[in-house]
Design brief:
Helix content: over 70%
CATH topology of the largest domain: MetI-like fold
Order of helices and strands: HHHHHHHHHHHHHH
Radius of gyration: 26 Å
Structural class: mainly alpha
CATH superfamily of the largest domain: MetI-like
Oligomer: single chain
CATH class of the largest domain: Mainly Alpha
CATH architecture of the largest domain: Orthogonal Bundle
Strand content: under 5%
Largest sheet: none
Distance between the termini: 62 Å
Protein backbone atom coordinates (compact mmCIF):
# COMPACT_ATOMS: atom_id res chain seq x y z
CA UNK A 1 0.00 0.00 0.00
CA UNK A 2 1.24 3.41 -0.71
CA UNK A 3 2.06 5.47 2.33
CA UNK A 4 0.62 8.54 0.79
CA UNK A 5 -3.07 8.95 0.55
CA UNK A 6 -4.60 10.50 -2.52
CA UNK A 7 -6.09 13.78 -1.55
CA UNK A 8 -9.46 14.69 -2.93
CA UNK A 9 -9.57 17.93 -4.88
CA UNK A 10 -10.86 20.68 -2.70
CA UNK A 11 -14.11 22.25 -3.85
CA UNK A 12 -14.36 26.01 -3.67
CA UNK A 13 -16.66 27.16 -0.91
CA UNK A 14 -20.06 28.21 -2.08
CA UNK A 15 -20.96 31.82 -1.66
CA UNK A 16 -24.06 31.22 0.42
CA UNK A 17 -24.76 34.87 1.31
CA UNK A 18 -24.65 35.85 -2.36
CA UNK A 19 -27.01 32.99 -3.28
CA UNK A 20 -29.36 34.02 -0.47
CA UNK A 21 -29.40 37.60 -1.71
CA UNK A 22 -30.16 36.43 -5.24
CA UNK A 23 -33.06 34.35 -3.99
CA UNK A 24 -34.42 37.24 -1.93
CA UNK A 25 -34.02 39.62 -4.89
CA UNK A 26 -35.82 37.22 -7.23
CA UNK A 27 -38.62 36.76 -4.68
CA UNK A 28 -39.01 40.53 -4.23
CA UNK A 29 -39.12 41.04 -8.01
CA UNK A 30 -41.70 38.27 -8.34
CA UNK A 31 -43.90 39.89 -5.69
CA UNK A 32 -43.55 43.27 -7.42
CA UNK A 33 -44.43 41.69 -10.79
CA UNK A 34 -47.55 40.10 -9.33
CA UNK A 35 -48.50 43.41 -7.67
CA UNK A 36 -48.30 45.28 -10.98
CA UNK A 37 -49.75 42.55 -13.22
CA UNK A 38 -52.80 41.56 -11.16
CA UNK A 39 -54.68 44.82 -11.99
CA UNK A 40 -53.96 44.27 -15.69
CA UNK A 41 -55.17 40.68 -15.40
CA UNK A 42 -58.34 41.86 -13.63
CA UNK A 43 -58.89 44.42 -16.38
CA UNK A 44 -58.50 41.79 -19.11
CA UNK A 45 -60.89 39.40 -17.34
CA UNK A 46 -63.46 42.09 -16.57
CA UNK A 47 -63.50 43.30 -20.17
CA UNK A 48 -64.98 39.92 -21.19
CA UNK A 49 -68.03 40.31 -18.92
CA UNK A 50 -71.30 42.15 -19.26
CA UNK A 51 -72.41 44.60 -16.58
CA UNK A 52 -74.28 42.05 -14.38
CA UNK A 53 -71.32 39.69 -14.58
CA UNK A 54 -68.97 42.52 -13.73
CA UNK A 55 -70.63 43.01 -10.34
CA UNK A 56 -72.07 39.54 -9.69
CA UNK A 57 -69.14 37.20 -10.41
CA UNK A 58 -65.68 36.55 -9.03
CA UNK A 59 -63.46 39.39 -10.18
CA UNK A 60 -60.40 37.30 -11.05
CA UNK A 61 -62.10 34.71 -13.24
CA UNK A 62 -64.22 34.60 -16.37
CA UNK A 63 -68.01 34.58 -16.45
CA UNK A 64 -69.71 33.90 -19.80
CA UNK A 65 -66.88 35.63 -21.70
CA UNK A 66 -67.62 37.40 -24.98
CA UNK A 67 -64.64 39.76 -25.37
CA UNK A 68 -65.00 40.58 -29.06
CA UNK A 69 -68.70 41.41 -28.71
CA UNK A 70 -68.15 43.73 -25.76
CA UNK A 71 -65.08 45.44 -27.23
CA UNK A 72 -66.98 45.98 -30.49
CA UNK A 73 -69.77 47.60 -28.47
CA UNK A 74 -67.21 49.95 -26.90
CA UNK A 75 -65.91 50.98 -30.32
CA UNK A 76 -69.36 51.57 -31.83
CA UNK A 77 -71.09 53.30 -28.91
CA UNK A 78 -72.28 56.84 -29.71
CA UNK A 79 -71.16 56.59 -33.34
CA UNK A 80 -67.66 55.51 -32.36
CA UNK A 81 -66.80 58.35 -30.02
CA UNK A 82 -64.23 56.10 -28.28
CA UNK A 83 -62.33 55.79 -31.56
CA UNK A 84 -62.24 59.59 -31.74
CA UNK A 85 -60.93 59.78 -28.17
CA UNK A 86 -58.32 57.14 -28.98
CA UNK A 87 -57.16 59.10 -32.03
CA UNK A 88 -57.00 62.28 -29.94
CA UNK A 89 -54.80 60.55 -27.37
CA UNK A 90 -52.50 59.28 -30.10
CA UNK A 91 -52.25 62.79 -31.49
CA UNK A 92 -51.57 64.42 -28.13
CA UNK A 93 -49.11 61.78 -26.93
CA UNK A 94 -47.42 60.98 -30.24
CA UNK A 95 -46.91 64.49 -31.57
CA UNK A 96 -46.24 65.92 -28.11
CA UNK A 97 -43.64 63.26 -27.26
CA UNK A 98 -41.81 63.60 -30.58
CA UNK A 99 -41.59 67.39 -30.41
CA UNK A 100 -40.71 67.31 -26.70
CA UNK A 101 -37.91 64.82 -27.40
CA UNK A 102 -36.40 66.94 -30.17
CA UNK A 103 -36.63 70.13 -28.12
CA UNK A 104 -35.13 68.40 -25.09
CA UNK A 105 -32.27 67.01 -27.18
CA UNK A 106 -31.49 70.41 -28.67
CA UNK A 107 -31.68 72.22 -25.32
CA UNK A 108 -29.73 69.55 -23.45
CA UNK A 109 -27.01 69.44 -26.10
CA UNK A 110 -26.69 73.22 -26.10
CA UNK A 111 -26.43 73.38 -22.30
CA UNK A 112 -23.80 70.65 -22.29
CA UNK A 113 -21.67 71.89 -25.19
CA UNK A 114 -21.84 75.65 -25.53
CA UNK A 115 -20.59 78.17 -22.99
CA UNK A 116 -22.67 81.35 -22.81
CA UNK A 117 -23.60 83.92 -20.14
CA UNK A 118 -26.41 82.75 -17.91
CA UNK A 119 -25.88 79.07 -18.70
CA UNK A 120 -26.01 78.13 -15.02
CA UNK A 121 -29.14 80.19 -14.46
CA UNK A 122 -30.88 78.48 -17.36
CA UNK A 123 -29.98 75.08 -15.94
CA UNK A 124 -31.34 76.12 -12.53
CA UNK A 125 -34.61 77.19 -14.14
CA UNK A 126 -34.82 73.80 -15.85
CA UNK A 127 -34.27 72.03 -12.53
CA UNK A 128 -36.93 74.21 -10.92
CA UNK A 129 -39.30 73.19 -13.69
CA UNK A 130 -38.70 69.54 -12.83
CA UNK A 131 -39.77 70.21 -9.25
CA UNK A 132 -42.96 72.13 -10.09
CA UNK A 133 -45.98 69.77 -10.38
CA UNK A 134 -47.86 69.96 -13.64
CA UNK A 135 -51.20 70.36 -11.85
CA UNK A 136 -50.01 73.65 -10.35
CA UNK A 137 -49.57 75.08 -13.84
CA UNK A 138 -52.86 73.92 -15.35
CA UNK A 139 -55.01 76.87 -14.26
CA UNK A 140 -52.43 79.58 -15.18
CA UNK A 141 -52.04 77.89 -18.54
CA UNK A 142 -55.81 77.93 -19.05
CA UNK A 143 -56.03 81.66 -18.37
CA UNK A 144 -53.12 82.24 -20.76
CA UNK A 145 -54.61 80.16 -23.56
CA UNK A 146 -58.07 81.64 -23.01
CA UNK A 147 -56.60 85.14 -23.36
CA UNK A 148 -55.12 84.30 -26.78
CA UNK A 149 -58.18 82.34 -27.94
CA UNK A 150 -56.63 78.85 -27.91
CA UNK A 151 -58.64 77.32 -25.06
CA UNK A 152 -60.83 74.32 -25.96
CA UNK A 153 -58.65 73.34 -28.92
CA UNK A 154 -56.03 70.76 -29.79
CA UNK A 155 -53.32 73.37 -29.28
CA UNK A 156 -54.38 73.87 -25.65
CA UNK A 157 -53.21 70.34 -24.84
CA UNK A 158 -50.45 69.95 -27.42
CA UNK A 159 -48.42 73.09 -26.71
CA UNK A 160 -47.94 72.48 -22.95
CA UNK A 161 -47.13 68.83 -23.71
CA UNK A 162 -44.05 69.64 -25.80
CA UNK A 163 -42.23 71.11 -22.78
CA UNK A 164 -40.30 68.56 -20.71
CA UNK A 165 -37.89 69.98 -18.10
CA UNK A 166 -36.93 66.45 -17.06
CA UNK A 167 -36.13 65.63 -20.69
CA UNK A 168 -33.90 68.69 -20.99
CA UNK A 169 -32.05 67.76 -17.80
CA UNK A 170 -31.61 64.13 -18.86
CA UNK A 171 -30.38 65.09 -22.35
CA UNK A 172 -27.96 67.59 -20.85
CA UNK A 173 -26.48 64.92 -18.57
CA UNK A 174 -26.29 62.34 -21.36
CA UNK A 175 -24.84 64.75 -23.93
CA UNK A 176 -22.15 65.79 -21.48
CA UNK A 177 -21.11 62.14 -21.06
CA UNK A 178 -21.72 60.64 -24.51
CA UNK A 179 -20.81 63.39 -26.98
CA UNK A 180 -17.02 63.89 -26.98
CA UNK A 181 -15.76 67.39 -27.65
CA UNK A 182 -12.98 66.03 -29.90
CA UNK A 183 -15.57 64.49 -32.23
CA UNK A 184 -17.47 67.75 -32.49
CA UNK A 185 -14.26 69.65 -33.20
CA UNK A 186 -13.31 67.17 -35.92
CA UNK A 187 -16.71 67.59 -37.55
CA UNK A 188 -16.35 71.38 -37.46
CA UNK A 189 -12.89 71.16 -39.03
CA UNK A 190 -14.37 69.07 -41.83
CA UNK A 191 -16.75 71.92 -42.59
CA UNK A 192 -19.95 70.57 -41.03
CA UNK A 193 -22.36 73.19 -39.72
CA UNK A 194 -23.96 73.06 -36.31
CA UNK A 195 -27.29 71.91 -37.72
CA UNK A 196 -25.68 69.04 -39.60
CA UNK A 197 -23.63 68.06 -36.56
CA UNK A 198 -26.72 67.99 -34.39
CA UNK A 199 -28.94 66.16 -36.87
CA UNK A 200 -26.44 63.67 -38.22
CA UNK A 201 -24.12 63.05 -35.29
CA UNK A 202 -25.43 64.19 -31.93
CA UNK A 203 -28.91 62.64 -32.30
CA UNK A 204 -27.31 59.26 -33.10
CA UNK A 205 -25.04 59.39 -30.07
CA UNK A 206 -27.92 60.46 -27.82
CA UNK A 207 -30.41 57.88 -29.09
CA UNK A 208 -30.74 55.99 -25.74
CA UNK A 209 -31.55 59.23 -23.91
CA UNK A 210 -33.98 60.22 -26.65
CA UNK A 211 -35.82 56.91 -26.41
CA UNK A 212 -36.05 57.38 -22.64
CA UNK A 213 -37.41 60.91 -22.96
CA UNK A 214 -39.88 59.81 -25.63
CA UNK A 215 -41.19 56.95 -23.49
CA UNK A 216 -41.53 59.07 -20.37
CA UNK A 217 -43.23 61.92 -22.21
CA UNK A 218 -45.55 59.65 -24.18
CA UNK A 219 -46.72 57.90 -21.01
CA UNK A 220 -47.07 61.23 -19.19
CA UNK A 221 -49.20 62.78 -21.94
CA UNK A 222 -51.23 59.60 -22.50
CA UNK A 223 -52.14 59.40 -18.81
CA UNK A 224 -52.58 63.13 -18.33
CA UNK A 225 -56.04 63.90 -17.04
CA UNK A 226 -56.06 67.25 -15.29
CA UNK A 227 -54.72 69.40 -18.14
CA UNK A 228 -57.37 68.23 -20.68
CA UNK A 229 -60.02 68.53 -17.96
CA UNK A 230 -59.14 72.20 -17.47
CA UNK A 231 -58.52 73.07 -21.11
CA UNK A 232 -61.25 71.22 -23.01
CA UNK A 233 -65.01 71.60 -23.08
CA UNK A 234 -65.80 69.97 -26.45
CA UNK A 235 -66.14 66.21 -25.88
CA UNK A 236 -64.88 65.47 -29.41
CA UNK A 237 -61.48 66.80 -28.35
CA UNK A 238 -61.24 64.60 -25.25
CA UNK A 239 -58.44 62.09 -24.82
CA UNK A 240 -59.25 58.58 -23.63
CA UNK A 241 -58.86 59.22 -19.91
CA UNK A 242 -61.21 62.17 -19.89
CA UNK A 243 -63.73 60.39 -22.10
CA UNK A 244 -63.81 57.29 -19.90
CA UNK A 245 -64.34 59.49 -16.87
CA UNK A 246 -67.31 61.07 -18.62
CA UNK A 247 -68.76 57.62 -19.27
CA UNK A 248 -68.25 56.64 -15.65
CA UNK A 249 -70.11 59.76 -14.53
CA UNK A 250 -73.20 58.67 -16.51
CA UNK A 251 -72.96 55.00 -15.48
CA UNK A 252 -75.52 55.33 -12.67
CA UNK A 253 -78.18 56.21 -15.23
CA UNK A 254 -76.80 53.86 -17.92
CA UNK A 255 -75.29 50.81 -16.19
CA UNK A 256 -73.94 49.46 -19.46
CA UNK A 257 -71.34 52.24 -19.32
CA UNK A 258 -69.61 50.42 -16.47
CA UNK A 259 -68.75 47.61 -18.88
CA UNK A 260 -67.84 50.05 -21.63
CA UNK A 261 -65.52 51.93 -19.27
CA UNK A 262 -63.70 48.72 -18.31
CA UNK A 263 -63.36 47.69 -21.95
CA UNK A 264 -62.13 51.14 -22.92
CA UNK A 265 -59.60 51.09 -20.09
CA UNK A 266 -58.23 47.79 -21.40
CA UNK A 267 -57.89 49.22 -24.90
CA UNK A 268 -56.19 52.31 -23.50
CA UNK A 269 -53.23 50.33 -22.11
CA UNK A 270 -52.55 48.49 -25.38
CA UNK A 271 -50.53 51.33 -27.03
CA UNK A 272 -48.33 51.65 -23.94
CA UNK A 273 -47.62 47.92 -23.92
CA UNK A 274 -46.84 47.89 -27.63
CA UNK A 275 -44.62 50.95 -27.38
CA UNK A 276 -42.65 49.54 -24.47
CA UNK A 277 -42.22 46.20 -26.26
CA UNK A 278 -41.02 47.82 -29.48
CA UNK A 279 -38.63 50.36 -27.93
CA UNK A 280 -37.30 48.27 -25.05
CA UNK A 281 -34.66 46.59 -27.22
CA UNK A 282 -33.28 49.89 -28.49
CA UNK A 283 -33.48 51.39 -25.00
CA UNK A 284 -31.63 48.64 -23.16
CA UNK A 285 -29.12 48.01 -25.94
CA UNK A 286 -28.31 51.71 -26.30
CA UNK A 287 -27.87 52.21 -22.57
CA UNK A 288 -25.52 49.21 -22.43
CA UNK A 289 -23.45 50.53 -25.31
CA UNK A 290 -23.27 53.95 -23.64
CA UNK A 291 -22.06 52.44 -20.37
CA UNK A 292 -19.31 50.52 -22.19
CA UNK A 293 -18.14 53.65 -24.00
CA UNK A 294 -18.10 55.64 -20.78
Amino acid sequence: MSSTLATRPSTPPTNRPAARYRILTAAALAVAAVYFLVPVYWLAVSATKDTPGLFGSFGLWFHDPHPLRYLRAVLTYQDGVFVRWFANSLLYAGAGAVIATLLSAAAGYALATFRFPGRGAVLNVVLAGVLVPATALALPLYFLFAAVGLADSYAAVLIPSVVSPFGVYLCRIYADAAVPASLLEAARLDGAGEGRIFGGLVLRLMSPALVTVFLFQFVHIWNNFFLPLVMLNDSTLYPIQLGLTQWLGYADRQPVLYQYTVGGALLSVVPLMVLMGVLQRYWRGGLADGSLKA
